[in-house]
Protein: ATP-binding cassette domain-containing protein
Amino acid sequence: MDSERPALGRHERFRGDYPVVVEGLQNKFGKQVVHDNLDLTVRRREILGVVGGSGTGKSVLMRSIIGLQQPTEGNIEVFGRSITEAEPDENIGVRNRWGVLFQGGALFSTLTVGENVEVPLRQFYPEISPALRREIARYKVMLSGLPEEAANKFPSELSGGMRKRAGLARALALDPELLFLDEPTAGLDPIGADKFDRLTKELQDTLGLTVFLITHDLDTLYAICDRVAVLADKRVIAVGTIPELLETGHPWIEEYFNGPRGRAAQGTQTRAESKG
Structure:
């Protein structure tokens, strides 16, 4: 299992093996300290699941990495460039290398699905013709598992699962290397959640994506995550495979993965592997 603090020299980070490196992160809101001395590295082309109890700051961590939350202390490097020390405009060359699916999709309700997908294309590549933008948007819509005609629909005309996929299509608009997913299966029925997990894994394999995945879904953790990072006590207390995490003996980890839901998820994964 990985140690809590990454022992990496700067020259190692630039080799591309660690697209995200977080060191000594502190996030503080007034007197409330959400993160304190938090360290985390994300490996290239892995699906890293991020778990933790309510209030541990999983989404705050993601927002810090993508530059939407300015940390109180610490440093975050994405693709070898500091997110915390640079001005926002200086990170344009980094920001177009990641895509984000926010919880709930965060789609613009007054735009069609296709127009939503076009938003990042307009922002980063204004020179692209409208016709080419529409063509790219339709391709991304289909890549996310939606029918082509969904590009002309408004978010209100879609089911919850379809809105998730529409949000994913927008996250994929710029052909990212790094994909952030915040509770992508929340609110989906088990069949819909399983299909989204399978789609995530297929995209990761096909496109060579690195995926940072916040979830409470134990089925997702067992089915597609290469490693899992556990947030507790204002930091990442452990990172590793689920069997490695269980070896730590930490009470929260034991309760989370060995509780009734954890045992059910483990049993489901075991049966799936035996059928495979």
User: Anything to note?
Assistant: The longest helix spans residues 190-207. The two ends are 27 Å apart (CA to CA). Residues 96 and 174 are 6 Å apart (CA to CA). The longest strand covers residues 32-42.
